[in-house]
Fold this protein.
Amino acid sequence: MTKLFEPIKIGDISLANRVVMAPLTRNRAPGAVPNDLTVTYYRQRASAGLIVSEATAISHQGQGYADVPGLYTREAVEGWKKVTDAVHSAGGKMVVQMWHVGRISHNSLQPNGGKPVSSTSRIAEAKTFLVKEDGTGEYVATSEPRALDLSEIPGILEDYRKAARAAIDAGFDGVEIHAANGYLIDQFLRSGVNDRTDRYGGSIENRTRFLFEVVDVVVKEIGGGRTGIRLSPVTASGDSSDPEPQPLFTHVVEGLAGYGLAYVHLVEGQTGGPRDFQQGDKPFDYEALHAAYKAAGGHGGWMANNGYDRQMAIDAIDHGKADVIAFGKPFISNPDLVERLKLNAPLTPLDTANIYGKGGVGYTDYPTLDQVA
Ligand SMILES: Cc1cc2nc3c(=O)[nH]c(=O)nc-3n(C[C@H](O)[C@H](O)[C@H](O)COP(=O)(O)O)c2cc1C
């Protein structure tokens, strides 16, 4: 019998099973406020052991895509409260993924049409998603950023603190700090992006400073047991790269070990792409990373993601390679994914035409098993 469907406690959060819904941006929150459709969508998926919300901007400056939700207005907090109430009523648990996109943004999404901010002033070879006046979506090049001045960093840390507090006010069971996929924290971590010469650039200690300052401020505000973090050591999204990810992320997890976090979430390989993707000259060793975290005293849950299917998840859990497994795309098209995995039932394929934007179609209309039968 596999342990995949057995309860587990990670930090302060008790999960009914070890199947997690990964964060999934869906661009259906105009005005950055979750709405009734958001409530329905997450309620339908509440049988996950834990839901990690779609990436959610900690501030207006942290916004990088059209119609993604935020956590920085009263309306957004009230909108999220309805979501968390629905998930809790259905027996689920939910954390919010706290997001600052850094340079993966566009002037039109920024306060006063200003430049997005980053560790660097170099533009990313990347695209973002905007909605035109006629309501149709388009992919456009990201705008030129400006490098953050040292004097601005405390203000960004304060935005993280406020967002963590807002998350608790909105009824979330905790937060996931988004340090993956080429966004702001990752823009500090990676030497292929971070070209600073101050105490936030250069050595591994310097490039990880911003990440630890964010973790510190969030943990002080809401406690480590309600805080998780997402890392993607080799992902090249957002034009990010680092020739030596192993020592960089070993330093990260060793530092995280002291914070008593609920969990550390690892995207293995290129996010949403090949699991054997690598940066640097050697394949990345995730087991060594896990061992380094434990050896440094880390006892948070180890969450693994990227391209997992039922058997891979069972093997990883039952061989102690991970404590919980996050599924992304399968949760979009299978609201009752846990039940389907339990029964080894077929999965509904993803409707790729309706992933982003567009209301309820391809969002809240996927059937459960009993609706299929
Ligand atoms: C539509 C879509 C939206 C995503 N949005 C986010 C996001 O908001 N935050 C994040 O960290 N990852 C995001 N991801 C990555 C997923 O969380 C996950 O890492 C990826 O889909 C691989 O897992 P899977 O193979 O189970 O789908 C997104 C992926 C997809 C397909």
